[in-house]
Each structure stands twice: as structure tokens, then as C-alpha cells.
Design brief:
Distance between the termini: 25 Å
Number of strands: 2
Structural class: mainly alpha
Largest sheet: 2 strands, antiparallel
Order of helices and strands: HHHHEEHH
Radius of gyration: 18 Å
Length: 169
């Protein structure tokens, strides 16, 4: 029987605090993807992400093909899909939707971190030192922790999937 302190997404052998931490991490990522995904359907957010898209060679075509709002809508749809997939992980961590949501999350943050290399104004020189600008540099750098969270959730999904397949065979 699972302890009330254990939380819903922990693995056997983890302490209650580790299980609650994993649950909070998943919940936070779900909320981030659902919130950010919905916002991409607004003109305000489409304008905000446009500079990142037009300076990133792998996504510029998306902007050129679909325009500012169309590209933002497509990205928002992918983010909503990631959020829903991660939410499925609360109940079926080894399921394909959970695995897909976590994989999309990893790819999302790999892409946004690559904006650090392609977006003008990320690095500013102050007193002879290369520093990250508050925006967009520091804004993008927070995605390092979101990438780490995404890798953790992908690891959970892959481990649960492997365990599920072993039980089935």
C-alpha cells in the first residue's frame, strides 16, 4: 500500500520527498507546457517569439512558410501535445503518450537553448566580460533547468516503459 506521504509518481525505493519532488516536477512541466502552448495562439506571444524563429536556421522556414501567427500556432499545438502527454504520465508513465510528451519536452528545450547561439543580443560585453543579457540571454538560460527536468521525465517514461514491456513478456 502506498503511503500518503509517497505521492503518486514515485518508484519503489524512493523516499517520500523524492516522490513528491518528482510529482511536483511533472505538475510544473505540465502547467508550463499547457500555459505556454495556449499563449502561442495570441498575437502578443507570436510577436514575442518571432525574433527567435527568424534568427534560428532550423525554424526560419516555419516562419517563412506559415507567417508569424501560423508558426506560433503550430509551436503552441506542439507544446499543448507535450503538456497533455506529460499529464498522462501521472496515470500511465510508461505509455506512448507519456513517452512522446517527455521526448517533445527534451527537444523543445534543446531547441530553445540553441537560440543562445543564434539570437542577437544574448551575449553583451560589460567591463570586458561576455555576460548574458537579461533578455533574451537570461530568459533563455533558465531553459537549462527545464531541459534537465525534461530529461528526468523522459528517463522515468523510458524506465516505466521498459518495466511494462518486461512484465508483458
Amino acid at each position: 500500500m502506498q503511503s500518503v506521504v509517497a505521492g503518486p509518481v514515485g518508484r519503489e525505493g524512493e523516499s517520500g520527498i523524492e516522490q513528491w519532488g518528482a510529482t511536483l516536477l511533472r505538475l510544473t512541466m505540465v502547467l508550463i507546457f499547457l500555459s505556454f502552448g495556449m499563449q502561442k495562439f495570441t498575437a502578443y506571444e507570436a510577436a514575442a517569439i518571432e525574433p527567435f524563429l527568424v534568427h534560428f536556421p532550423l525554424l526560419r522556414w516555419l516562419h517563412d512558410l506559415l507567417g508569424r501567427q501560423g508558426a506560433s500556432n503550430l509551436i503552441g499545438s506542439v507544446e499543448l501535445l507535450a503538456g497533455l502527454g506529460l499529464a498522462v504520465g501521472f496515470f500511465a508513465r510508461g505509455s506512448l503518450p507519456s513517452l512522446l510528451g517527455a521526448a517533445i519536452s527534451v527537444v523543445t528545450y534543446l531547441v530553445t537553448l540553441s537560440f543562445l547561439l543564434t539570437t542577437p543580443g544574448v551575449i553583451v560585453w560589460q567591463e570586458g566580460l561576455p555576460l548574458s543579457s537579461p533578455y533574451p540571454g537570461q530568459f533563455l538560460m533558465k531553459d537549462m533547468v527545464l531541459l534537465a527536468a525534461s530529461v528526468f521525465l523522459l528517463g522515468q517514461a523510458l524506465s516505466a516503459r521498459r518495466d511494462m514491456l518486461r512484465r508483458e513478456s
